[in-house]
Structure formats: C-alpha cells, structure tokens
C-alpha cells in the first residue's frame, strides 16, 4: 500500500466513524499550525470529550509537556517521547499515573549514552541543534531541524538519522525533530500497553480496533498509520510522501489543526446521524 492509495476523509464510511470511541492523535503539525494550537483544534478535542469519545495524544514531545497536557487538556491520557511512557491524570484522586517502557536506572544509563551521542551529532551537523524542549525529556534525544532552526535539507535530516542508527539507537523523523533513543519501543507499543492497562482492551482484536481512530502527519507516525484501519493524515502529510512506506488510509482536506477539526467534525456528525436512526 502506497501514497497513491490514500483516500479523502469524505470517502471514509459513515458507519465506521459512528463506531469510534477513541481518537488518538499526534500533536505537532497535526493539532498545531505553525507551532501553535488553534482554537478549532482544542475545541474539537473538547467536543469529542463531551460526546464521550476519549482523546489520547500520541506524541514525540517531552515528559514535561506531557505532564501539563495530561492535567490540563481534555484528554484521557498521553503517550510521550515516541512511546517511552504514558501519563494519565486521575481527577478524582488527583494522582498522576506514570508508566515507563524502561526502569529508572536504565533510563539514567541511556541518558549518559545519549549525551555522548548528542555531542557527536552536533559536531557533525552544526546547522542542526538541540531541541528547546530537551531539558524536559526523560528518555530520548531530540535534534531540531525545523522548529527553531532550519529547515535543514532532507539529506541532512537523514544523515542525523543514520548517526543515531550507527550508534545502535532507534531514530524517528517528525515534522520538526529527529528523535533518538535506546530501545525497541515506539508509539504503537506503548499505545498497546496504555489500552491494556487503562481500558482492559486488546487492540489486536478487530472489535477493539474498530473503535479507534489515529491522526498524524509525519514519518514517525507510520507504526500507527500502518496498524489502525481508521488512520488519517492531515493534509500536510503529503509533504512526506517520499518517506512514507506506511501512509495513512485517509487524508483530511486541510492541514494541521484545521484538518484535525474536520476529522473530529466528521466523527461527531456520524455519531449524531446514528442516534437519529
């Protein structure tokens, strides 16, 4: 299945959207536009939440951001740093659940290896830089190529990926960063754990998969695009068509947060139509 096989949002069967109970979504350039969260995207999350549809961001952003998002956004939890953990804030007990893919001592050892690798990458790619949110990360190294710097040419970005991989690290390209970490986890593996531990759901079952939508925009979303039958790219996913071996099944008309709002609107309309029958 390739880029040419992607269909428009309007081609997604209404009966499929009417079954949705969970909306998983990337954040950067999926909910945001030019680095900011537009009102339409936040309102869409709130409307989904009020309709009983649980929203769960699946992001490469750092633990520090994820703590705030889990507390303050209308979400059921969040998977962060490309699958290094999930956080879930329980309002009734005012308690934050923090579940990591690796234990604390292993994360500390990984950090020492990543710090050494950071120096090597920045020396080899002086036109790149450490991401501004790196101090708030617990498990990965984020190299900025398009957020506060650049954007760097594609071959430079792939060169950074190659350095991570040569050191034995996993590496993923988002729309703004190359994220690298030691371990074989990713967004999908931690999403599986989240659903198992929080909702007692096995998302390898077709009946459970049918309840879940994923939306994203870039190559690091590919494990999710490839796995979920109801996977959606916001329109700017097309910018990465040459890097997508597992593209989304559907694409929204608009980019970024506007595209996410279109997807949310389609889900809510399908739910309302089902209720009227």
Task: Outline the structure in words.
It is a single chain. This protein is α/β, with parallel strands linked by helices. 38% of the residues lie in helices and 18% in strands. It contains 9 helices and 13 strands. It has helices at 14-18, 39-50, 63-72, 104-124, 154-166, 187-199, 206-209, 222-227, 256-276; strands at residues 7-8, 22-25, 54-57, 78-80, 85-90, 95-100, 129-130, 141-144, 170-173, 177-181, 212-216, 231-233, 250-251. The strands form 3 sheets. A 6-stranded parallel sheet has the order 1-13-12-11-2-3. Strands 7-8-10-9 form a 4-stranded antiparallel sheet. β2 (22-25), α2 and β3 form a beta-alpha-beta unit. The radius of gyration is 18 Å and the shape is globular. The mean pLDDT is 95.
Major sheet: order of its strands? Answer: 1-13-12-11-2-3
Helix and strand sequence: EHEHEHEEEHEEHEEHHEHEEH
| Fraction in beta strands | 15-25%
Biggest beta-sheet profile: 6 strands, parallel
Helices, by number, come to 9
| Shape, per Cα inertia axes | globular
Question: What is the residue-averaged pLDDT?
Answer: 95
Number of strands: 13
Furnish the topology, listing elements before pairings.
Elements: E1 7-8, H1 14-18, E2 22-25, H2 39-50, E3 54-57, H3 63-72, E4 78-80, E5 85-90, E6 95-100, H4 104-124, E7 129-130, E8 141-144, H5 154-166, E9 170-173, E10 177-181, H6 187-199, H7 206-209, E11 212-216, H8 222-227, E12 231-233, E13 250-251, H9 256-276
Parallel strand pairs: 1-13, 2-3, 2-11, 11-12, 12-13
Antiparallel strand pairs: 4-5, 5-6, 7-8, 8-10, 9-10
Helix pairs in contact: 2-9
């Amino acid at each position: 299945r390739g880029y040419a096989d992607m269909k428009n949002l309007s081609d997604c069967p209404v009966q499929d959207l009417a079954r949705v109970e969970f909306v998983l979504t990337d954040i950067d350039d999926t909910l945001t536009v030019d680095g900011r969260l537009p009102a339409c995207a936040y309102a869409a999350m709130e409307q989904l939440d009020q309709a009983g549809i649980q929203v769960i961001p699946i992001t490469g952003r750092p633990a520090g951001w994820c703590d705030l998002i889990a507390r303050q956004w209308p979400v059921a939890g969040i998977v962060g740093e490309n699958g290094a953990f999930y956080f879930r804030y329980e309002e009734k007990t005012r308690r934050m659940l923090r579940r990591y893919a690796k234990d604390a001592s292993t994360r500390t050892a990984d950090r020492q290896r990543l710090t050494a690798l950071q120096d090597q990458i920045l020396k080899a790619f002086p036109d790149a830089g450490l991401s501004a949110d790196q101090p708030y990360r617990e498990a990965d190294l984020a190299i900025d190529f398009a957020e506060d710097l650049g954007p760097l040419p594609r071959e430079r970005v792939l060169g950074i990926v190659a350095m991570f991989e040569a050191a034995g690290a996993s590496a993923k390209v988002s729309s703004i960063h190359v994220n690298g970490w030691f371990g074989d986890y990713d967004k999908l593996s931690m999403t599986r754990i989240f659903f198992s531990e929080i909702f007692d759901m096995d998302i390898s079952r077709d009946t459970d998969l049918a309840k879940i939508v994923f939306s994203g925009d870039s190559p690091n979303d590919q494990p999710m695009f490839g796995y979920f039958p109801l996977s959606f790219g916001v329109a700017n996913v097309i910018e990465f068509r040459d890097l997508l071996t597992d593209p989304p099944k559907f694409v929204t008309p608009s980019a970024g947060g506007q595209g996410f709002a279109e997807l949310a609107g389609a889900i809510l309309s399908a739910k309302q139509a089902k209720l009227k029958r």
